[in-house]
C-alpha cells in the first residue's frame, strides 16, 4: 500500500533545506568563530556553494540514470556521512579538508534538490502537486529555522558549557549528522517505489547526451533570454552582498564596528524573528502576485526587496544595544526580502515554462546561485576595506542595480508577465 504524501513530503523537504543552510549559513558562523578573516571567509564559503551553480550540468543525469528514489537515499546518506566527517576534522585537521567535506555535502545536496523535486512531480498528479506546494515550502523554511536558529543557539550553549569553540561545533555537527542519518533511514521505509525500474548509463548514454544538449540549446535560444539572464543575475544584488557579512557584523565587537552579540542572540534574532518575517513576506508576496499579476507587482516588489537594506547602515552607525531594536530591524529587512523575492521565483517559473520546464528551471536556479556567489565572494574584502558603515552604505547604493534590471525585465520580457 502506497504511503500518503503526508508521510514523506514534510520530512523530504526538511531534508532538502537543512544541508543548504549547513553549507551556506553554519559554515560562515563556524569559520568566523574559528578566527577566519571576513575577506577569506566570504571567498571560502562562496567557493563551497558552487555545486548549486553547476547542478544544471548533471540534472539530465539524475533525470535519466537510476531512479529518483535511489538518488534521494544515496545523496541523503552522503550528506550525513560528510557532516559527521566535518565534526571529526575539527579536531585539528587542515581547514582545506574540512572545506572539501563541506563542498562534498553541497554537491550531494544540490543533487538531492534535483532528485527530490523530480520525485515530487512524478509521485503526485497536478492537483496534489498544487495542494502540497505550501507544505513543502513550509517545511523547507522549518529547516531554515532549525539550521539558522536552533543549531546556532545549540552551538552557543555547548560553547558556554565546555568553554571550547571546537568542542561546541564538533558536538553540533555530530548531532546534525545523526538527524540526517535518521531521516535517510526513515525515507528508505516511507518513500514509495514509483518508477518501474532503475536504468543505467550504458542503457541511456545517447539519450542522456541528447537530453542535455536539447535542454541547454532550447534554454539559451528562448525569446528574451538575455534580459532574463541579466534579471536573474542582478535582481537581488544588494541582499546577495549582505548575506555573508551579517553574522560577522552581529558578532564583532563595537570597537570593530559590529554589534557585539553572542551566537545565541544571533540565532534567536536571525533564526526565529528573521525567518518568521521572511516566511510572512513570502506568503504575502505570493498572494499579492496572484491578485495583481507579476507585471503589475514587479515594481513594488523591487522596492520591497531593496529599501529595507537601509536598516543596516543605521545599525552600523547607531550600534544599538537593545535586542528588540536589532531584531525589529532584521525583521523589517527579511519581510521586505521575502515579499520581493517572490517576484524572482515567479519570473523564473514563467521563463522556464514549456516542454522542458524541469531542465530549464534547473538552469534558472543555476543563475540564482551565481547571483549570490559572485557578490558574496567579494563582500568580505569590501567590508574590510570600507568598514561596516561604509560597506552597508555601498549595499544601499547598489539598490540602483535592482531598479535597473527590473525596468529592463519589464520592458523586454513583458510577454512573460501577463
Low-pLDDT runs of 5+ residues are none
CATH fold node name of the largest domain: Growth Hormone, Chain: A
The tally of beta strands, per DSSP, is: 0
Give the helix proportion (percent range): over 70%
CATH class of the largest domain: Mainly Alpha
What does this entry look like structurally?
The chain is mainly alpha-helical. The protein folds into two domains: 1-207, MFS general substrate transporter like domains (Growth Hormone, Chain: A), CATH 1.20.1250.20; 222-418, Up-down Bundle (Growth Hormone, Chain: A). It contains 18 helices and no strands. The chain has helices at 9-33, 38-47, 50-54, 59-64, 68-89, 95-123, 126-162, 165-190, 201-220, 225-234, 237-243, 246-251, 263-292, 294-306, 311-318, 323-352, 357-397, 399-412. Helix 1 (9-33) runs antiparallel to helix 6, helix 2 runs antiparallel to helix 17 (357-397) and helix 13 (263-292) crosses helix 16 (323-352).
Detail the topology: elements first, then pairings.
Blueprint: H1 9-33, H2 38-47, H3 50-54, H4 59-64, H5 68-89, H6 95-123, H7 126-162, H8 165-190, H9 201-220, H10 225-234, H11 237-243, H12 246-251, H13 263-292, H14 294-306, H15 311-318, H16 323-352, H17 357-397, H18 399-412
Amino acid at each position: 500500500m502506497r504511503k500518503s504524501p503526508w508521510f514523506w513530503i514534510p520530512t523530504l523537504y526538511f531534508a532538502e533545506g537543512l544541508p543548504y543552510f549547513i553549507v551556506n549559513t553554519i559554515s560562515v558562523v563556524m569559520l568566523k568563530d574559528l578566527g577566519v578573516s571576513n575577506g577569506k571567509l566570504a571567498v571560502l564559503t562562496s567557493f563551497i556553494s558552487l555545486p548549486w551553480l553547476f547542478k544544471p550540468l548533471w540534472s539530465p543525469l539524475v533525470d535519466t540514470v537510476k531512479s529518483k528514489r535511489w538518488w534521494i537515499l544515496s545523496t541523503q546518506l552522503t550528506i550525513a556521512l560528510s557532516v559527521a566527517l566535518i565534526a571529526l576534522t575539527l579536531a585539528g585537521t587542515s581547514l582545506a579538508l574540512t572545506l572539501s567535506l563541506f563542498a562534498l555535502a553541497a554537491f550531494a545536496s544540490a543533487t538531492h534538490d534535483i532528485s527530490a523535486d523530480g520525485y515530487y512531480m512524478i509521485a503526485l498528479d497536478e492537483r496534489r502537486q498544487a495542494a502540497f506546494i505550501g507544505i513543502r515550502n513550509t517545511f523547507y523554511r522549518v529547516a531554515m529555522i532549525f539550521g539558522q536558529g536552533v543549531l546556532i543557539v545549540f552551538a552557543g550553549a555547548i560553547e558556554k558549557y565546555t568553554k571550547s569553540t571546537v568542542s561546541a561545533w564538533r558536538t553540533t555537527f555530530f548531532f546534525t549528522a545523526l538527524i540526517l542519518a535518521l531521516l535517510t533511514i526513515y525515507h528508505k521505509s516511507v518513500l514509495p517505489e514509483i518508477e518501474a525500474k532503475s536504468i543505467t548509463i550504458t542503457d541511456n548514454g545517447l539519450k542522456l547526451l541528447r537530453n542535455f544538449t536539447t535542454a541547454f540549446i532550447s534554454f539559451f535560444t528562448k525569446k528574451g533570454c538575455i534580459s532574463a539572464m541579466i534579471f536573474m543575475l542582478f535582481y537581488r544584488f544588494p541582499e546577495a552582498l549582505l548575506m555573508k557579512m551579517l553574522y560577522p557584523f552581529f558578532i564583532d565587537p563595537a570597537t570593530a564596528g559590529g554589534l557585539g552579540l553572542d551566537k545565541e542572540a544571533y540565532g534567536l534574532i536571525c533564526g526565529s524573528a528573521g525567518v518568521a518575517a521572511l516566511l510572512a513576506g513570502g506568503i504575502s508576496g505570493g498572494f499579492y502576485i496572484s491578485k495583481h499579476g507579476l507585471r503589475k507587482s514587479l515594481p513594488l516588489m523591487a522596492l520591497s526587496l531593496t529599501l529595507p537594506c537601509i536598516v543596516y547602515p543605521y545599525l552600523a552607525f547607531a550600534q544599538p544595544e537593545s535586542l528588540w531594536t536589532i531584531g525589529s530591524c532584521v525583521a523589517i529587512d527579511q519581510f521586505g526580502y521575502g515579499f520581493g523575492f517572490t517576484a524572482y521565483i515567479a519570473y523564473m517559473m514563467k521563463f522556464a515554462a514549456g516542454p522542458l520546464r524541469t531542465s530549464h528551471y534547473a538552469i534558472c536556479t543555476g543563475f540564482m546561485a551565481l547571483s549570490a556567489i559572485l557578490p558574496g565572494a567579494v563582500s568580505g574584502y569590501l567590508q574590510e576595506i570600507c568598514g561596516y558603515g561604509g560597506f552597508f552604505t555601498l549595499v544601499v547604493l547598489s539598490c540602483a542595480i535592482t531598479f535597473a534590471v527590473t525596468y529592463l525585465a519589464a520592458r523586454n520580457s513583458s510577454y512573460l508577465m501577463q
